[in-house]
Amino acid sequence: MKGGIKLEHGAGGEGMRELLTLVLRYFDFNEVRGTDRGEIEVEVPLNALDDSAVVDHIVFTTDSHTVKPLFFPGGDIGSLAIAGTVNDIAVMGAEPLCLSAAFVIEEGLPVSDFERILASMKRTCDEAEVSIVTGDTKVVEKGALEKIVVNTSAIGKRTAALDTNLEEVRRYRELDTNWLVDSNLRAGDKILVSGYLGDHGVALFSFREGFEFDTELRSDIAPLNKLIHELLVVGGVVVMKDPTRGGLANTLNEFSEKSNVGIMIEEDAIPIRESVRSACEMLGIDPLEIGNEGKVVIGVVKEKADEVLDALRRTEKGKDAAIIGTATNELKGVVMKTRVGGMRIVETPIGDPVPRIC
Predict the structure, then answer these.
(1) Widest pairwise Cα distance in the chain
(2) Residue 114 lies in a domain
(3) Which of 67, 76, 91, 249 could cross-link with 288 by S-S, CB 3.0 to 4.6 Å?
C-alpha cells in the first residue's frame, strides 16, 4: 500500500481490505496466549475479520462513526452508533450486554446538538435493552474534524438460543464452529435478507445533497438483537451479517470468499423499494453496494429456510424479509440472475458509493 489514505479505504469493499491488510501485519493476535491465571483462548480472531472477536467466550466489538449530516430522516449519529454496535454482537449469535461510548467533539458543537445525540443513544439503548457503562470524551480545536466522531464498543455473551440453533444445524449437516462466522456457509444453504435494502444510504445521501424524490426515504437504523434471538430459537442459522459499508454485494462476497463457496441470487427476489431503485438509477449507483443499518443477511440450512423466513415475517423489523439465493459449488463468487434472465457477476465494491453514512 503506497501513498496517502483515501476515503475509499474506510468505506468497505476492496479499499478497506487493502488498509486492513496493513493493519493485520501488526495486530494479528490469533493464538492462545498464557497469563498468570492460565491460557486465553481466541475463538474468533482479528484476522477472521468477522463482525466481532471472541476471546475466552467473551464476544467483543468496536465501531467508530463519522456521519454527514449528524441528523437525517430516520436517525442520527447517536442511534446509528448504538444500533450498529449492538448488531455486530448479535450477528455472531451472542447477546449484547453493555457498551462503552467515546466522543471526540469539535470545539463549537452546540450543546443542544450534543444533548440530542445523547438522548437518541439512550432511546436506542432502551430499545435494545443494553446500557452504556464506561466512556471517554475529548474536545479538539475547531477545524480538526467535522463536529463529532462517536466510538462505541460492546461485549456480549453466548446464549442458550445459540446452542439450540447450532444443534438444529447439525441435524442436517456438519458444522465445526461454535459461532456464526462468515466461513460457515456451505453449498445448499439458503440466503435470506430481513427487508428492503438501500434505505439508509439513499435516505442520508439524498437528504445531505438536497435531492427530492416522490416518496420520502428514511434510514432503516434499528437494533436487531431481539429479532436475531427469535431466529436462533427457530434454529438452522449458520451465518449472519448486517450489510453496512459496501452493502449486500460486499457481505455476500465476504461469505463466498471465506466459505469457499459460490452464491447465486435472484434479482427479482431482492427487496428494494422503487424509490430507492429510481434514486440509484438517477445517481448512477448500484443499490446492492449501498450501506444499510437495520437489516441482516442470513445463511440458513435449506431444510429450515422457510421456518426462519416465517419467523422473520412475524416481526415488525422482518416483515418484508425474503429468500434471495442459494450457496452452490457450481460457480465461484457471487452471481445474480437478472430480471431478463441473464447472469451478472456481483463483484466486491471498491467501497460504499455513498461516503460518510456510518
Answers:
(1) 63
(2) yes
(3) 249
Handedness of CA 184, 190, 195, 199 (dihedral sign): positive
The pLDDT of residue 8 is: 72
Residue 171 has pLDDT above 90, yes or no: yes
Residue percentage of the chain with pLDDT more than 70: 93
Whether 154 contacts 121, CB under 8 Å:
no
Residue 134 CA to residue 53 CA, distance in Å, equals 20
- Are the beta carbons of 127 and 58 closer than 8 angstroms? no
User: Is there a contact between 79 and 294 (Cβ–Cβ < 8 Å)?
Assistant: no
Q: Which three cell numbers stand for residue 239?
A: 451465518
CATH code of residue 264:
3.90.650.10
Beta bridge partners of 298: 192, 240
How far is it, in rounded angstroms, from Cα 159 to Cα 141?
44
Q: Which of 19-28, 101-110, 244-253 has the lowest mean pLDDT?
A: 19-28
- Distance from C-alpha of 66 to C-alpha of 357, rounded to nearest angstrom: 7
Q: Is pLDDT at 32 greater than 60 in this prediction?
A: no
Q: Find out whether 79 and 221 touch, Cβ atoms under 8 Å.
A: yes
Q: Look at residue 41 in the predicted model and tell me its pLDDT.
A: 82
H or E element, residue 139: strand 131-140
Cα(163)–Cα(166) distance, integer angstroms: 5
Q: The domain containing residue 124 runs over which residues?
A: 50-157
In a domain? residue 25: no
Does the predicted model carry a pTM greater than 0.90? Answer: yes
Q: What are phi and psi of 90, to 5 degrees?
A: -65, -35
Which of 53, 4, 8, 3 is CA-nearest to residue 27?
53
